[in-house]
Amino acid sequence: MRRDDSGIPARNLEGPGGIESLIQLLAKLPGLGPRSARRAALFLLKRRESLMEPLSRALRETAKSIQVCSTCHNLDVADPCAICTSHKRDQSTICVVEEVGDLWAMERVAGFRGLYHVLGGALSALDGVGPEDLAISTLVARAKSDAVKEVILATNATVDGQTTAHYIADVLADAGVIVSGLAHGVPVGGELDYLDEGTLGAALKARKPV
Q1: Distances (CA, A) of 148 to 72, 81, 112
Q2: What's the whole-model pTM score?
Q3: How far apart are CA 73 and CA 135, in angstroms?
Q4: Do 103 and 174 have their domain in common?
Q5: How many domains does the chain have?
């Protein structure tokens, strides 16, 4: 019987219930192509009891338990999420991010103790993403609450991210809140010679008295 380079019989790589279906699903994950997906599948198969089966259970349990927060669109086991219901968070400040991964990044810094709002992406004419495709209307409704005093626009420093930030700033112009943005400039420990012109330009514009 013909075998592939992993030593698995070729017939096991065929059919909807075979290994090939696992490889095809893994290949859909970010950063994984066909070759890396095949290696990942083989790695899992060699560790069925210690890794593959626990991973399978975790995926099933997560798929059943994780919900989208109806307030900020974060992912959590409860709706509203733990951040929105925490009495230790500053209810007067909302940090706007594009994706849940950006929220997680902000939380790792541990320097922000306010609330969040996940847009679900950024405006993009090229990809056909308009304001109605993002959670902008719910953000406006939250910003008009008497408790909210400031909205921080923490979208990515890309063309689409900055376009989104400018659009939201315009929409919130009459909401009666302070609209601020993250400073962009020289990173901590960065050397000027290694920075691109855009980063240096942003640093100059965001300069402050010493």
Answers
A1: 14, 18, 15
A2: 0.81
A3: 8
A4: yes
A5: 2
